[in-house]
Amino acid sequence: MGTFDEIWDIVRQIPVGKVATYGQIARMTGRPRGARLVGWAMASCPEGSDVPCHRVVDRAGGTKRAFDEHMPGGQRFLLEAEGVAFRADGTVDMDRCQWRPA
Fold first, then answer.
1. How far apart, in Å, do the first and last CA atoms of the chain sit?
2. Distance (Å, rounded) from C-alpha 74 to C-alpha 29?
3. In this predicted model, what pLDDT tens digit does every residue of 15-74 receive, in sequence order?
4. Which CATH number belongs to the domain containing residue 50 in this structure?
5. C-alpha distance from residue 40 to each of 16, 22, 90, 95, 97 (Å)
6. In a domain? residue 47
7. Looking at the domain assignment, is residue 77 inside a domain?
8. Rounded to two decimals, what is the model's pTM?
9. Residue 102 lies in a domain
10. Nearest to 54 by CA among 28, 19, 23
């Protein structure tokens, strides 16, 4: 299995209403310093894919501007539609919404 496929398989497991960080996913693939690789995988996800790329945020719960190039405010809109809570500073409330797989 290719690296991007492995990353996409993990992202598909993030439940509705939860988010994961780039670094968290990198650690889950056994690449603790691979957050940037996860970012490349998200950016390379084919259009119309079943990978919920919008559920991946930075370590502080920030959404990515690169996501918004195609749909301004889109990542936040999709997350809020799934019930993800945001703080007053515009970041995801990671205490409430970070995915913690068993």
1. 23
2. 27
3. 999 999 999 999 999 999 999 999 999 999 888 899 999 999 999 999 987 777 777 788
4. 1.10.10.10
5. 22, 10, 24, 26, 23
6. yes
7. yes
8. 0.92
9. no
10. 19
